[in-house]
Amino acid sequence: MNKVLSILATKKFWIELIIMTLGMTVTAAAVYYFLVPSKLIIGTISGLSIVLSNIFTDGQGLGIWIMSINIVLLILAFLLIGQEFGFKTVYTALILGPLTDFWAKVFPWENIANPNPVTGTPSVMGDPWLDLCCFVLLLSAAQALMFSINASTGGLDILAKIVNKYLHFDIGASVSVAGAVICCTAFAINPFRMVIIGLIGTWINGLVVDYFTATLNNKKRVCIVSKDYDRLRRFIIDDLQRGCTLYEVTGGYSGEKSIELEALLNKDEFSKLMDYINKNEISAFTTAGNVSEVYGFWHKNKKSSKKHAELR
C-alpha cells in the first residue's frame, strides 16, 4: 500500500496519466468519427466491437462492447503472459470504450457525416478511403504519444503480444495477423469492397505499429577500443548503471593486443557516454549499431543490471 501511495505522489505518474488519457481520447475520436459511420472495419478491437454491436445490438452500445472485449483480453493476457501488462495497459484498454461513448454524447457523428455519392453509406469524409487515411493518421499520432511513455493503446496490442509470445512473430506482424482475422468478421455486415479496404488499412496500421515499436525499443550496441577501457568501464557501471563486456582483441594492422569494451545502452545513455569521452579527451575507437530486440537482464532495473555486470 505504501508503494502505491508513493507512486501516486510522484509528478511522473500524473504526467503519464494525462498523456495516456489524451492519447486514448484521440484514439476514441478516430474510431468514432472515421470507422463507425461507414462501418469501416479495421483489424482492431474497436473494429470487432463495431461488427458485434451491429449484429447483436443494432449498432448501439459500442463503448460497452469495446470495454467488455478488452476486459476478456486483459484476463487472457495475465493468464497467458503473466504480469507483463501493468497499470498503463489496463488503464488504456478500459477507458477506450467510455471515451468512445463520450464523443457520441458530446458531438455525434451524424452532425458532420455525409452520404457517399456512390454507395449512399454515411461517411465523415465522404469516402471510405479518406476515412481510412484520417483514421490511420490519428491513430499513429496517438500511438506515437503513447509509445513515448512506454504505453500502448491496449486492445489489439494485447492480442498481438499473445501471438508474438507463442508464434514468435514480430509485433507488427502479430498485429497484422490478428487484425486480418478481425477484418474477415466484417463480411457479416459489409460488402466485399469494404472488407478489402479494411484489410489494407490493417496492413498499413501494422506497418505503423512496427515502425513506432522498433523506434521505441532501439538500443545501441557500443563497441569501444581504448587504453582507458577501465575508466570507461567504471563510468558505464557506476554512472550509467549498465553492464558491459570486455574482450581481448588483436589489431589486424599493428598486431598489438588491446581490450574492446562492449555495452548495450539506450539513446540517452549512449549520448552521455559520448559526452564523457569527448569532455575527458579519451582516445577511443568507437562503433555503435542499432539493436531492436533485447532479452534477459537488460530489461530489469539498473541495480540488477549492475549486479550482473561481471557475469556478462
Core attributes:
Alpha-Beta Plaits, two-stranded antiparallel sheet, 312 residues, 12 helices, alpha+beta, elongated, single chain, 4-stranded antiparallel beta sheet
Order of secondary-structure elements:
HHHHHEEHHHHEHEEHEH
How many domains?
Answer: 2
What is the terminal-to-terminal distance?
36 Å
What characterizes the major β-sheet?
4 strands, antiparallel
Instruction: Please tell me the overall pLDDT.
Output: 82
Tell me the fraction of residues in β-strands, as a range. 5-15%
| Count of alpha/pi helices | 12
Structural class: alpha+beta
Shape: elongated
Arrangement of strands in the largest sheet: 4-5-3-6
Topology (elements, then pairings):
Blueprint lengths: L1 H7 L2 H24 L10 H12 L5 H19 L6 H20 L7 E2 L6 E2 L4 H20 L8 H12 L3 H14 L7 H26 L1 E7 L3 H11 L4 E7 L6 E9 L1 H13 L5 E7 L10 H6 L5
Question: What features would you describe in this structure?
Answer:
The protein is of the alpha+beta class and 312 residues long. It has two domains: 2-217, no CATH class; 219-311, Alpha-Beta Plaits (2-Layer Sandwich). The protein has twelve helices and six strands. The protein has helices spanning 2-8, 11-34, 45-56, 62-80, 87-106, 128-147, 156-167, 171-184, 192-217, 229-239, 267-279, 302-307, and strands at residues 114-115, 122-123, 219-225, 244-250, 257-265, 285-291. The strands form two sheets. Strands 4-5-3-6 form a four-stranded antiparallel beta sheet. Strand 1 (114-115) and strand 2 (122-123) form a beta hairpin. It is elongated. It starts with a helix and ends in a 5-residue tail after the last helix. Residues 308-312 have low confidence and may be disordered.
